[in-house]
Every structure is written in structure tokens, then in C-alpha cells.
MarR family transcriptional regulator
Amino acid sequence: MDEFLTLITQAQKLLHAASDEAMSRHGVRIGQNLILEVLWETDGLTPGEIAARARLPITTPTIVNTATRMEAAGLLTRRRDPNDGRLVRLHLTDRARAAQRPIQEARRDLAEHATATLTDEERHHLRTALTKIIQQLTAEPAESDGESE
Amino acid sequence: MDEFLTLITQAQKLLHAASDEAMSRHGVRIGQNLILEVLWETDGLTPGEIAARARLPITTPTIVNTATRMEAAGLLTRRRDPNDGRLVRLHLTDRARAAQRPIQEARRDLAEHATATLTDEERHHLRTALTKIIQQLTAEPAESDGESE
DNA sequence: CAGAAGTCATTAGCGTGCTAATGAGACCGT
DNA sequence: ACGGTCTCATTAGCACGCTAATGACTTCTG
């Protein structure tokens, strides 16, 4: 049953690499995707706000580091908030906005390609199973002694 | 459908973190697992041989770096091959051998816990779906233009 | 209004994994 | 036996993500 860990790790590894490669063709690396998704929706958020809104759990330091690389790549700019000197607001450049559609399409295409050999029913089962696993692991990380309650 | 990428990423992220935490209790970090699995089976292999035998694709430089940390942690020793000066053979210490059973149990428990809310049928479907995805992504990484053959 | 406490982004440091470049050693042909 | 080539491990350098520590700024409190 341990092979289940191997299976999901390998699948995610392949998807990760394929996604990075697909997005790189549009000047975006995979680690930048979570930030872009949030800023495409609402521009000018702070690192902390982005961390809170991201679809996947991500820490603020990771956002700061990634934002630095994105700034160097010309994808966003940093501006201090005039009302609160602690805050830094991240604003997308035109280049980052222009990348939205092709990147979203590329990721959609990748998901479709990866699941191309699955039936609709299998896709549904897969989604159900993954959701259950996430819920189980999110609910209570306890596992060693004391599985009750 | 893009949510599928998010689902599998999050599931793997949670499993990855939980697995690292579980193995850390036995003095082993998650990146060392692939190497240990191979050396538990056959001790004294070279980094290249380990890369070839590992259950998941892994590069030789990653094995070398991880082996350096494992050496510092007292999990293995490096010895030059007497017959071929290019080769370095990695030998597990008693400590690494003693960790085999508890770590394998911890990973099995984790897999069971993660899939505890799934029916046997769902587990079967999940395995099938993941296998198909892996095959699809391994077969031909092509995707943009030219999906044929 | 000052000092304490809270809230931010950021930096430091680690682990993991990759590709590309490097260097040591073996092997092969002449 | 010697030079080129091949085969190794290793190093360099990058991306990504985490926790813990730091520092700047705001806010609350006396």
C-alpha cells in the first residue's frame, strides 16, 4: 500500500515538470503561478494578503522570495503603501497581465492531456478520492498513538 | 478542470509534509528515503546505480548531495571502489539499517491514514487513475502542436 | 506623549531537486 | 605506451518551499 505514496509523488512530479515547462514558454515559472492567480483577480495586494487568498497554502516568505524573482523578471513592481509603512503592495506589469490567458490555457491543456486516457467516471472518482485525502490530512495531522476522536 | 492540478498538488504537498514529519522522528528526512529504499535492498551501490534503481526518477547529483547530508547524519559512509577509482560505493550504517522497519511502518501507516475514508473501490480507482496519468505523461511529453503518433 | 506590544515584510538558513559544467579515472585505438 | 574518448562523481548555480529570526512601522496603553 506504500506504493500509493510513490504513485501520487510521481504523478505530481511529472505534472510539476510539465507545468513548469509549459509556463516557461510564456516567461513564467511554476512557483509564480499562485501569486499570479491571486493578482490577476485582485491587483495591488500585499504578500500576506496573497498568502491568505492563494488556492494552496503558501507562506509569506515564499511569496516575498518569489516576488523578488518576478520583479527581476519584469512581472511585477513593489510599492510601499502610503497609509501604512509596513505594507508592500505588489502590482502586476502589462507583461504579467498579458500572460494570463496563455498560461491558463496551457495549464488547462496540460490537465486535459494528463487525464486524456481517463473516462469521465474515472476523472470524477479521481477528484473525489483526492478531495477525501486532502480533507483527511487537513482535519487532524495526528497519526501515531491516539487516533480516536 | 484546472482544479485537478491544484488538487493533486495539494494532496501531494500534505503527504510530503506528513511523510517528512513522520520520518524525521526516526532521524531520516524525506529526501533520503529513495536512497535508503535502494540501499536497504542492496548495500554498497554507487550513486549512479542508485539513480537507476530508485522507484522514482532521480538524478545522480541529487543523490550525491543527499548522500553528503546522510553521511554527516551518520546514516552512510563513502568508500572508493578498489577496482575502479571513478566509483564511490555507499554503505549504510547500523543506524540506517535499524531505521528500516520503523520508517517503512510509518509510511505504510501514513498511506493508510490518508486513504482511511476511501472505500476499497475508491482506492482501486485512485490507483488506476494515477497510473494512467503517469503513463500518459511518461509516454510522450509532446503537447503543443502535433499530438499525433 | 512615550514605551510596550502587535503586525508587517524581509532575511537567514536549511532541505530538496534540477541542469550544466568540471575533473578524475578507465578504456580504446593506434 | 600514449592520446583521445568515455564514464563516473562531484561542484556550481538555480528554483522552490519551509521555519525561525530580524527589523521597520503602527497601535495601544499608561
In short: The helical segments of chain A are 3-24, 33-41, 47-53, 60-72, 94-98, 100-114, 120-139. The beta strands of chain A are 76-80, 88-92. Chain A touches chain B through 56 residues (CB under 8 Å). Chain A has one domain: 23-135.
